[in-house]
Specification:
heterodimer; A: Umud Fragment, subunit A; B: alpha+beta; MutS, DNA mismatch repair protein, domain I; Alpha-Beta Plaits; Dna Ligase, domain 1; 3 domains
Chain lengths: 145, 431
């Protein structure tokens, strides 16, 4: 006599269908072989989501770099800042967006350089407590109001 | 090998991510409704500020100190700690989140790498990416990992990671560790151990097994004892899903009126139901407690708790809110000024194989409630929490626009920070 095995069922998990193309009788769509993921800013612009923060530019200190008042900056905290990067730093009790200038490092200071002749660079000495908060990897501007 | 990763002074550290000026300064975070202190920076601890201190006493006791005070902002803490867990998930083969600021990892198959270095690197990555410092405790079981994590936090020499991987290290650590701080030893058992002359974790671990069982006859205590001796026996699934969910809050001021209490209790009950649905579970027991202000010795005091069994385990807001309100009406006594109430749901089980009670077989109603909750959850997820709420969750009095005031407006949070990670209106300003 053959035995019956009772297989316990799993009720706790829900399964989602990943890709369910419409089921048709007849010929399959010729495009199905060419399926490719849609371009996705979240995936392609943001390499480290757990380290990515957003900021809104307030003022014109970076205007000659093409960064305008009201732009959204995408800030990645996980990447190492190098000379010439646009960075976000916390200076004088506010967040500031500037170029990082490391060319005077051997002389004992670095500079946060604005891209606007109206403003002076911020000089930071070795002894000052200073930390780059994050590196700006993209800025976004809305054109269609 | 197990690891426990927890955020140092979690809420304070989250606030500091967007307030770097507060690094190195005393900071405290208050409980819901700004009642008492729930989180302190190391600097605040050094000043002698105790956890649980009522806020009004802070100003009395430390009038000359400059202390940064925040209302709790769980939207922010939840988002930032979620990022921490995302990084842990990338670095560890298995993990289980234990609470908002603690995450266990199971590191089987990683014996060949330098685990101490792994832990230090994990701290560095989380600190740089998210901005929140964590401590890593590594040991052959979860109880010892918790011990290790205390050492990682306490002594900077460990560089945020302490590894207990030898008999020598285990014994040394336990000799320095107060028994009351051992994971799984509650205050009550700690007092009992103290009365028996047991002060350190080592003294407890070296008690004979027979005496531990005879004196306590408690499986949790026994497991804790065994784990301190190096055995891995606290079950992992026990932490996967919570056995009970409690939502409680101190009121902003005191409340005597039953209708006003109902609004609060309805909200707590609704929150419990939401949490049940989030983890795909149902509860079979609903409990409500209510108490007066214990700090006001000049006022008459009253405390009561009662629970009921639901005919059918449920996670429906309507069912749980209804049950909670019936209990409230039962335990409520007029003439007292109430300070706090809470709803606890227990008997939690997975959603799918619900045991329908023979006397409660209104399957149609059951399905309808389920569909309704699904729609409500969806709307509230897309449009923001509390877009759709039960009428019982609303205050009856009208606001300026003539609409009934929602419950959220009745919570006090005078010092709440912004939400730069969850609201576009709050993202940081870059000068």
């Amino acid at each position: 006599m053959s035995k019956i095995h009772i297989i316990p069922s799993e009720f706790n998990k829900e399964l989602e269908l990943q890709l369910a193309y419409s089921i048709k009788a007849g010929f399959p769509s010729p495009a199905e072989d060419y399926q490719h993921d849609t371009l996705d800013f979240n995936r392609d612009l943001i390499k480290h989501p757990e380290a990515t923060f957003y900021g809104r530019v307030d003022g014109d200190s970076m205007i000659e770099a093409g960064i305008n008042d009201g732009d959204i900056a995408i800030i990645d905290r996980s990447v190492e800042a190098s000379d010439g990067d646009v960075i976000v730093a916390f200076v004088n009790n506010e967040f500031t967006i500037k170029y990082l200038d490391l060319s005077h490092k051997s002389e004992g200071y670095i500079e946060l350089r604005p891209a606007n002749k109206k403003y002076h660079p911020i000089k930071i000495n070795d002894s000052d407590e200073f930390e780059v908060w994050g590196v700006v990897v993209w800025t976004i501007r809305n054109w269609k109001k | 090998m197990y690891g426990i990763i927890d955020c140092d002074n979690c809420y304070v550290s989250c606030e500091r991510v967007f307030r770097p000026d507060l690094n190195g300064k005393p900071v405290v975070v208050l409980s819901n409704n700004d009642g008492c202190i729930v989180a302190r920076s190391n600097e605040a601890k050094k000043l002698g500020i105790k956890a649980g201190l009522p806020y009004f006493k802070l100003q009395e006791q430390f009038p000359d100190q400059k202390i940064a005070v925040f209302s709790s902002n769980y939207e922010l803490y939840g988002e930032l700690t979620g990022r921490v867990v995302d990084i842990i998930r990338q670095e560890a083969p298995q993990y289980f989140r234990y609470s908002i600021d603690e995450c266990f990892v199971y590191l089987d198959g990683m014996e060949h790498i330098d685990l101490k270095q792994w832990g230090e690197n994990l701290h560095n990555r989380i600190k740089k990416s998210v901005g929140v410092p964590v401590s890593v405790g590594l040991a052959p079981n979860k109880t010892l990992a918790k011990v290790a994590s205390h050492f990682a936090k306490k002594y900077s020499g460990y560089r945020h990671c302490c590894l207990i991987d030898s008999e020598e290290k285990r014994i040394k650590a336990l000799k320095l560790f107060p028994v009351e701080d051992v994971w799984g030893i509650g205050r009550r058992y700690a007092a009992k151990l103290e009365s028996m002359g047991i002060h350190t974790a080592f003294e407890f671990a070296t008690m004979p097994k027979g005496i531990v069982n005879a004196k306590f006859n408690n499986v949790v205590i026994y497991r804790t004892w065994a784990e301190l001796n190096g055995i891995d026996c606290v079950p992992n699934e026990a932490m996967a899903k919570k056995k009970s969910i409690c939502t409680s809050r101190s009121f902003n001021g005191m409340i005597s009126d039953l209708d006003a209490l109902k609004v609060h209790v309805s909200n707590y009950a609704s929150r419990c139901a939401e949490k049940l649905r989030q983890q795909n579970t149902v509860a079979s027991i609903v409990g409500v407690f209510l108490n007066t202000n214990f700090f006001r010795e000049d006022l008459p005091q009253y405390w009561q708790f009662k629970e009921v069994n639901l005919p059918t385990a449920s996670n429906s807001s309507i069912t749980i809110v209804h049950a909670a309100n019936e209990i409230l009406a039962d335990i409520y006594k007029p003439g007292y000024k109430y300070k706090k109430a809470g709803v606890i749901v227990m008997g939690i089980a997975a959603t799918s194989p619900i045991q329908l009670n023979l006397f409660d077989i209104n399957a149609e109603r059951f399905e309808k409630l389920k569909a309704l909750d699904k729609v409500i959850d969806r709307i509230n997820k897309v449009n923001g929490t509390e877009t759709v709420i039960l009428a019982a969750q609303q205050y009856r009095h009208k606001n300026e626009q003539g609409k009934a005031d929602v419950f959220a407006n009745a919570i006090k949070h005078d010092f709440r920070s912004k939400n730069p990670t969850t609201r576009w209106s709050d993202i940081i300003r870059l000068k």
